[in-house]
Amino acid sequence: MPPPPPRGVITRGTTGINRLRRSDRWLIHDPLVQETLIAAPDPLVVDLGYGASPTTTLELASRLRTVRADIRVVGLEIDPARVVPGRDGVTFARGGFELAGLSPVLVRAFNVLRQYPEEAVSDAWATIASGLAPGGLIVDGTCDELGRRCAWVLLDAAGPLSLTLAWDPFTTDRPSDVAERLPKALIHRNVAGEPVHDLLVAADRAWASAAPLSPFGPRVRWRATLAALDKQGIPVWLYRRRMRDCVLSVPWSVVAPNGF
C-alpha cells in the first residue's frame, strides 16, 4: 500500500549551515532524548520540513550518531523539488505531518509550524504523534535566520513535556529577547496574564539582579540567573555540564497557555 499523501503546506524553505546547532546540542545531551534513542529497537529519526537545503538534516544525523552510531535519519519535504538524493547515510523523501508512513522514534520539525495559524498547532501535533513509534518524541521549534535565538517544545504522544529557550550569550541582551522566536503554540501568548509571559518577566528580573557578575561573562551571569529562578520556586532545569549556550528549560506546565 502506498503511503498517504503529504499533509501540510510548503514552507518558505529558509535554512543555513549550523542554523539548528543549539537544538542539536541540546538533543544529544538531554537525558530523555538520549534514553529514547538508545532504547529504541529501530532508531529512526525524521527531520520534517528541512527546507531548500538538506544541510541541517545532515548535521542532525552526524550529531545524533554520537549518541547511537546506527541511527537512521530521513529528511521529509512536501515540495518534491526539494527532495534530493540520499548521502552520508541519510535518506530524503516526500512527506508531511503524516511522516510518509514512517514510524520514527524522534521527529524534529523546526520552523515548520511558525507559518501556520495557532489553532492548527494541536492538530499538527496530533497527526505527527499518531505516526510515532512507541515511546517516540517530537521537537517542534523555531529559530532566527542565523540560529542565534531558538525555542522548542518537546512532546510525546500524550502532548507537550517541556519548553526550552536557547540563545547565543554574546548577541542577546536579555532572556525575553528570545520571545520573538517562541514556537507557534506560545508566540501569541506572550502577553500579561499568560504563564509564558510571567516566566520571561521573571527571567529578565533575575538576569538584571545578576548584573554585578557581568565582568565574568554572560555565561557566568546566566548560571546565577538560573539559580535565582530556582530559589524563587520556578522549576528550571539546572544543567551540571558547562554550557556554550544560555539555556532555559522548564516543564510545559509552567508555560501552558491559559485554556490549553
Automatic annotation (TrEMBL):
It comes from Antrihabitans cavernicola. SUPFAM superfamilies: S-adenosyl-L-methionine-dependent methyltransferases. Keywords: Methyltransferase, Transferase. The keyword Transferase applies. InterPro entries: SAM-dependent_MTases_sf. This is Class I SAM-dependent methyltransferase. It comes from the Bacteria. GO terms for biological process: methylation. One of its GO terms (molecular function) is methyltransferase activity.
